[in-house]
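U., I forgot to send this yesterday:
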Amino acid sequence: MVVCGLACWRCRWLLPLLLGLAIIMGIIALAGRGWLESESEPYVQQASLWESCTRGQEDLNWNCESLMDYGWGRAAAATYLVGFVILVICFALAVIAFSIEILRFNFVRGIGGLLFVVAAFQIIGLVIYPVKFTEDIPLTGDNMFSWAYGFGWASTVVVIGCAFFFCCLPNWEDEVLGNIKPTYYYSSPERAPYLN
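Result:
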């Protein structure tokens, strides 16, 4: 039976898969219209990273205004988008790093450092957005930061976790490469008479 621990060579694809999951959540956050929504009926407000939409209680059509007209809107979108692009680059580098037989551990640690940069950019965008949005955009009714905004934070949390693992992976270099001989524990016949 093969036991696959946290740092074994057979499980090397776990970290790139987690980065892929972070990319999917980042795409949902970038494309989703649920950064801010009305909390209850009547649903009169919704916003994405790119625009804010409102409608009257009896109106069925949304009236949207671009958040790119605001400096903070461009800053929030740019920082989150830059972080996302670097995340995609890190994913490609991780696939390359774990595809080659001789893993370069300094290369893996560099990916971890880049992932911390990704997290910093994404956190900046995720903090700028709600602070400035509530200051500059008139809100109607009870509103909440919703599912797409949550996916942005989920992507960031996964990136932070992967960054720590990528940075710490070289500490287990021998285990990952399989250079450590397994330890076998044998019982003496006196202690285990049923083995005779």
